[in-house]
């Protein structure tokens, strides 16, 4: 198609204009470029011989998400179902599609992996659970700014589930107490408390409130200045469009202790009766206790060694005494001379006594032998 000759535009396109400068430079101007303007252009000079110059006009188009071919902005499925999110975009070059979670958490794939980002025009989720619930971002980019995104919210519906951390609570009269229940449900559940088959209403003493975080609900029942009529079983109830569930808490009366419990427990040992752990000794105290134990052990060992030596010495003395007595009596057997015997009469240096049995006329040799024997006993 001939666009212009010299400075005259031939094609009927008001967006095309031609300018020239001193009959040397011709310039083709294209306003409001569209994709149809993409292609090869040639500038030709009708000289002899003819000369020309060619150029290619590339038209890039930023990405654009096609809502008609993509998933809706809000998708609702039941727990354990499968779901596929789709997102399609056009542009030039062809855009690349990436998926991310708006809250920054990982995307759980069908094979159990968790990834921060997934590529592709579709995102398949199998056996969805409440953890899949949230907003997903479909981001399209092709290097031509700006990149565009689409926000798709995935809601997972499931029946209410109740968790009661303390099903048995005890408190004395005149004190304050709080009863708690934790609920997970979607769609949003209605929650309330019951006592003796009647709904609990807020009063000056009794108040109820809830703390909500997406599909999680924290139910709290506060009772001030407990009275006799407050004790019994309370029920926390939650219901939504799918099902209803409840939990129970029994409030019992306890008695105030007359005096604080006192009990001496070893350091670092759990007190089973009062349920607390006594203070552990410090390093200096542990070192001092260890030194005392070592000194006591050494003293006991020294006393035991001393006792063994004394026993050994006593047994040795007793053995030698018996040998001397035996030798002496054997040498004078049959004689009328004196005999040395041991008796339990008067205690000597070693707890023994000696008696001399002899005639009135004692030979001098027997007297010498007896004196020698007594001297040896004394030396021992």
Pick out the low-confidence regions: 268-278, 340-365
Count of DSSP helices? 2
- The percent range for helix content is 10-25%
Give the rounded overall mean pLDDT. 82
Q: Name the overall outline.
A: elongated
**Which radius of gyration do the C-alpha atoms yield?**
55 Å
The chain-level structural class is: alpha+beta
State the end-to-end distance: 145 Å
Task: Give me the count of strands.
Answer: 29
Main sheet record? 8 strands, mixed
Indicate the proportion of strand residues: 35-45%
Could you please describe the fold and organization of this structure?
- The structure is a single chain.
- This protein is α+β, with helices and mostly antiparallel strands and 380 residues long.
- 17% of the residues lie in helices and 42% in strands.
- The chain has 2 helices and 29 strands.
- The protein has helices at 283-331, 364-379; strands at residues 4-5, 8-9, 16-21, 25-30, 39-45, 51-57, 61-65, 74-78, 83-86, 89-92, 96-101, 107-108, 114-115, 118-119, 122-125, 134-141, 148-163, 168-171, 177-186, 190-195, 198-199, 206-213, 216-223, 232-239, 244-253, 270-271, 276-277, 339-343, 353-357.
- The strands form 10 sheets. Strands 8, 11, 14, 16, 17, 19, 22 and 23 form an 8-stranded mixed β-sheet that branches.
- Strand 1 and strand 2 (8-9) form a beta hairpin.
- The radius of gyration is 55 Å and the shape is elongated.
- The N and C termini lie far apart (145 Å).
